[in-house]
Structures are given as structure tokens and as C-alpha cells.
Amino acid sequence: MLTFRCARVAARLGVAATLSVIAWTSVYADDRAVGGCIGSRVSVNCAVRWGEAGDPYVRLVPQPTDEVEKAHAAERDRKWEGRCRPLIAQDRYGVPRYQYAAPGCEFGVIE
Predict the structure, then answer these.
(1) What 8-state DSSP symbol labels residue 106?
(2) Residue 29: per-residue pLDDT
């Protein structure tokens, strides 16, 4: 017979075991699972997050495929650099930041 305290310990161990199985087995080879539990004598809380491996803030931009697209991309870059004149300077905290000569350059505005 399980007492209330034993039931809590068993539930905690069951949740931790389930999370460890989820974290170490993945449906796809390029996925990642991150999880953990935190709690006290009275309660426990567990969470797992899974998704594609890699930095979620990095977006891959498709590169030009043929010579015409490459020429258009080079012309856009040349116009942007001519208008914006990007410069890297350190702010007061020593963090390197981009500075531009024209408004909207941080968003890729050409004209």
C-alpha cells in the first residue's frame, strides 16, 4: 500500500524517467529535446521542449542560382553599401554594433 508521501516519490520518479526517455530518444535524427524537473518535498514541475536542432533565430536565405540572379544580387548589395556605408563601432559597453549613414539601412532599405 502506498502512502501519500510514497505516491509523491513514485510519481516524481515516474515523471523523471519519462522525461529522460523523451530527452534521449528522438523521432527524427536532426531533432533535439531539452527538459528538466524542479520541485520540493511537496510538489514537482517538469517540462520538455523539442524541435529542430540548431539556433531558432538563424534563418537561411536562399542564394542566387543563375548568373542573372547573381548579377541582380550584386547590384542590390552595391547600391545598399553605397547608400548606407555600414560601419562597426563599439558602444559604451564595448559591444560591437553596426552604424549606418541613412535611416532604414538596418532593415535592408536601398532607396
Answers:
(1) G
(2) 57
Domain extent, residue 38, equals 4-52
**Largest distance between two CA atoms of the chain:** 78
Task: Please state the pTM of the whole predicted model.
Answer: 0.47
Same domain, 42 and 81: no
Contact 39, 45 (CB under 8 A): yes
Enumerate residues 6+ apart whose C-beta is below 8 A from 98. 86, 87, 88, 106
End-to-end CA distance of the chain: 76
Cβ-contact 46, 21 below 8 angstroms: no
Instruction: Say if 60 falls within a structural domain.
Output: no
pLDDT mean over 15-29? 52
In a domain, 93, yes or no: yes
Residue 59 lies in a domain: no
